[in-house]
């Protein structure tokens, strides 16, 4: 794996035409660092997953499909609505451009748009940090505070908000996202 600084520079270069996205990523870096410290997770893994998570967002959708089909031949893209797919190209970026092989980091990137049941700690930290980052103006102070207290409840809270928002705007929702919500509804506050 290349150094965190080198990863940061690759992401910066890749998003040179999209300063707002780079700024969002820097915000997520701030939150993952804080959450990893609070919940005794590996800070470096959390930060590296955050640098990569949206690096490929905004890619041409056709190119995105080609890349995913080539890299994940067994994956059914019907399970991944278009807005969730940058998580998959993010994994490709992490592996091929940054030589990342760590499964905690790769899973955090892969599931940051859909979630999945039984997420690992780094996965949950990125998922929640991405939701509470400051550019999300619809997130309340209370929701940001919850993230520092109970990671599982914060995961559930961000899932409920995101699903409600996507439903109200008639956007597709991955089946995996509903399964994740159902899992965290059943296991409220279970593991943190
Ligand atoms: Fe994303
Ligand atoms: Fe993001």
Keywords:
Hypothetical protein af1432, mainly alpha, binds fe (ii) ion, 192 residues, single chain, 10 helices, 0% strand
Give your account of this protein's structure.
The longest helix is centred in the first third of the chain and has 20 residues, at 19-38. The model has no long low-confidence stretch (mean pLDDT 96). This protein has 192 residues and is mainly α. The protein contains 10 helices and no strands. It has helices at residues 4-14, 19-38, 43-53, 61-71, 86-96, 103-110, 121-132, 141-149, 151-168, 175-186. The protein has a single domain, classed as Hypothetical protein af1432, CATH 1.10.3210. Helix 2 crosses helix 7 and helix 5 packs antiparallel against helix 6 (103-110). It is globular. The two termini are 29 Å apart. Bound molecules: fe (ii) ion (2 copies). One fe (ii) ion (FE2) is lined by residues 53-54, 57, 86, 112-113. One fe (ii) ion binds next to loops.
Short description:
With 192 residues, this protein is mainly α. It has helices at 4-14, 19-38, 43-53, 61-71, 86-96, 103-110, 121-132, 141-149, 151-168, 175-186. The radius of gyration is 16 Å and the shape is globular.
